[in-house]
Design brief:
Chain lengths: ~375, ~375
């Protein structure tokens, strides 16, 4: 498709250098704008068909997700775990691996963090020792779990997508078994849980914000991942290995190690998300931890085109839509499925409009 | 629950005040008008879909009932997970909708989510479904409501006992926690009060809502010769539908599933949450302190039976109604002294009947004689 760019009737001359520069700048913006327009159109039509006023619905979506300080805190709080689970998919994708089983890594991370947190709490350890220890325990548990998936792929040619999903089911079963038996707090009669952390060890909210430090942690990890991918030889090596493994082997890159490492790094992000959920929200590990953050992360990473930095705005958008879904239910009595439909439209539109990228129009002719 | 005396007394005094002249009446009248203009906003939060034919529907039915009350505005949100999301939903109801009474209806909302919000918003009342509230431990602006639904399961067991031909009953249970075990045991004891040769086969699915496993368990139980199925899962829908399709009887739970199994639906153990909802609203509207611990059985209108289905015989109805009358009268003990578990051990010493409100029953960790199955873990 190379015939679109030149408008009909325009002289067939080469575009000026300035025009080409503008077009190059527009390349990443056009698909996003087109996706946004398409989403607005599709969802408005769906809402109108269901008998609701589309303007009112959009007004509430903006208000509920981004309208005032409370809405923003609501949105950011919901986005906090999603940044990490988005990264959990985006990082292995750098090495060309599609991991979809991070829910399991998340719950194991939460379980490990809770178990270690309780041991340290019993030893009267202070928060500044307990928190990093919990974070490391969570990241290790998740990292080892998804690292195993990478190992299966690299050493035994087991498809990593399927393996990660099946491993996720195993992880959740393992988690339930531990929470309901060996690690169960005997006081948790009707909702089996691990022992809750003492209040003093719960991760507080950030100053001036009603959002816990998990958000900051997610942002820092995303920033670090972006910097590594962009500025370090390791990032370049990963991109080469992910882009063309044969070339990477040809130039002597340790592809197997790189790939397993990327998988483990992704799993570590998911495990860290689980640890944060325990330390900041639940205080203990129990079935509430299995909330689907791991699966939402898949959507987020795909929509962000696996860019570690792109995961942040997409996670915030998804958090905002969840927050507005809450308001839509309460104000208009729209079903919970309404925002699922909106998210569905948004992701389909995003992926469809991505095909606009890389077209001849945006490039100088050679 | 009894109506709050202070409110009625106040009204009576106001009426008596008429004698003192119109002037004294004008002020309360204006006050009352002002109150009517700012309705009590009540938030109801569900963990699953409102139309799940089960746990959430039972709550939604109560929400629908209180919507009809004057001066009450209800805002609802479904499918809210037991995470930070529910904290934000409660906060949003308070900030965006000006709710001052909230019913977070899922068990897992209580700790830490509801307690955290209750501390942050001490003027808002939080009424939680379950039995968690403890005097001295939990804030005064929080409370619990729950019902002794094992009474209904016992009666449903009687009906099942009369109806079953194979003498094999099936119970599909989510998790082996005390509340669930109590239902399995009550159902079994009700059936065995009719015929001691009856047994109940139990399958634990491990999840509150797992339709695939529930369907598999139903099929498996029916294949084993079970001809009455009941359950304790969040949505009994697929179990009732499977039973109806396979031509066996079923007994409902949480809400009525009669519409799903018009031929085989015998009866069911249902919640009647309008009772505690009304009690909380009455207290909130009159400014009376929040009732922190609401509990009751058939007698108090916290639970009810589904109307008998077409397949229920006259003898079954007569027996179930007879026991129900005793329960409504009060003092009927389901868990009596000398009770044995299914391993032969005596779990309640002889001569010691346990009242429905006995805390011992809240720690139940056994399956009674006649239940085939074991507690996993």
């Amino acid at each position: 498709m190379s015939s679109i760019p030149v408008p009909a009737g325009a002289p067939a001359a080469e575009p000026s250098a300035a025009a080409l520069k503008w077009r190059a700048l527009a390349e990443p913006l056009v698909p996003a704008a087109a996706a946004l327009a398409l989403t607005v159109l599709l969802f408005s039509a769906a809402v109108a068909l269901a008998g609701f006023n589309a303007f009112e619905v959009w007004g509430l979506i903006v208000l509920g997700g981004f309208g005032d300080a409370f809405a923003w805190q609501n949105t950011l709080q919901r986005a906090a775990p999603l940044i990490l689970t988005g990264l959990a998919v985006a990082l292995p994708a750098q090495a060309g691996r599609v991991i979809i089983g991070n829910e399991g890594a998340l719950v194991l991370g939460g379980l490990a963090a809770s178990a270690l947190g309780n041991v340290l709490a019993a030893a009267q350890a202070g928060a500044w020792l307990v928190w990093p220890a919990m974070a490391i325990a969570g990241a290790l548990a998740g990292g080892v779990w998804i690292g195993l998936v990478g190992l299966l792929r690299e050493k035994r040619e087991v498809n990593e997508t399927i393996a990660s999903l099946l491993m996720s089911f195993i992880a959740i079963a393992l988690f339930n078994q531990c929470v309901e038996t060996v690690l169960r707090d005997p006081a948790s009669l009707n909702k089996p849980s691990t022992k809750p952390l003492p209040d003093a060890l719960l991760l507080p909210t950030m100053p001036g914000l009603d959002v816990h430090y998990g958000l900051l942690l997610g942002l820092l990890v995303a920033l670090a991942a972006w910097a590594v991918m962009r500025f370090t030889p390791l990032g370049l090596a990963l991109r080469v290995a992910g882009g063309n493994a044969r070339t990477a082997l040809g130039v002597g890159l340790p592809v197997v190690k790189l790939t397993i490492g990327a998988c483990a790094a992704g799993g570590a992000c998911a495990g860290l998300a689980g640890a944060v959920e325990v330390a900041a929200v639940h205080g203990a590990a129990n079935a509430s931890l299995i909330a689907g953050y791991g699966y939402t992360g898949i959507l987020i990473a795909f929509a962000a085109r696996f860019s570690p930095a792109g995961v942040v705005p997409v996670a915030i958008l998804v958090g905002g839509i969840a927050a507005s879904g809450s308001l839509l239910q309460r104000r208009l009595g729209l079903p919970d499925a309404a925002v699922t439909v909106l998210l569905g439209f948004a992701f389909v539109a995003l992926i469809a409009c991505e095909t606009l990228r890389g077209r001849q129009f945006f490039k100088a002719r050679s | 629950m009894s109506s709050h005396p202070t409110h009625d007394a106040l009204r009576r005094r106001l009426l008596a005040g008429t004698a003192l002249g119109a002037g004294s009446l004008a002020l309360p009248g204006a006050l009352r008008e002002a109150l009517a203009q700012t309705p009590l906003v009540v938030g109801v939060i569900y963990v699953g879909p409102r139309g799940d034919f089960g746990y959430n529907q039972a709550q939604a039915q109560a929400a629908a009932a209180i919507k009809k009350l004057p001066g009450v505005k209800v805002v609802e949100e479904e499918n809210v997970p037991e995470t930070a999301a529910v904290q934000k939903t409660m906060e949003a109801m308070i900030n965006q909708d000006k709710a001052s009474l909230i019913f977070p209806t899922s068990f897992g909302y209580f700790d830490p989510h509801m307690l955290k919000m209750a501390e942050k918003y001490p003027k808002v009342r939080f009424a939680h479904c379950g039995g968690m509230w403890t005097e001295g431990k939990h804030p005064k602006n929080t409370g619990s409501y729950f019902g002794y639904i094992d009474e209904c399961q016992y009666l449903a067991g009687i009906v099942a006992g009369y109806t079953s031909k194979t003498k094999k009953l099936g119970f599909i249970a989510a998790k082996p926690i005390p509340q669930v075990l109590r239902n399995i045991n009550a159902f079994t004891m009700g059936a065995r009060s009719v015929d001691p040769s009856i047994t109940t086969r139990v399958i634990f699915t491990g999840e509150w809502s797992m339709p695939v496993k529930e369907a598999e368990a139903s099929t498996s139980l029916i294949d084993q010769g079970v001809d009455v199925l009941t359950c304790h899962v969040d949505s009994p829908k697929v179990i009732m539908e499977t039973a109806e399709k396979r031509g066996v009887f079923c007994s409902g739970y949480h809400a009525s599933q009669a519409a799903l199994a018009p031929k085989g639906y015998l009866t069911g153990a249902e919640w009647d949450w309008a009772t505690p909802y009304n009690a909380q609203i009455k207290a909130a509207q009159s400014g009376a302190p929040m009732p922190n611990f609401l509990r009751g059985g058939l007698k108090d209108g916290y639970v009810k039976m589904s109307p008998y289905g077409a397949a229920v015989g006259a003898a079954a109805k007569a027996k179930a109604d007879e026991i129900k009358a005793l329960m409504v009268k009060g003092g009927y003990a389901i868990f009596k002294g000398g009770l044995k578990d299914n391993k032969g051990a005596v779990v309640i010493p002889a001569g010691k009947n346990l009242d429905q409100f006995d805390a011992e029953l809240e720690k139940m960790n056994y399956l009674v004689e006649g239940v085939i199955g074991s507690i996993p873990g």
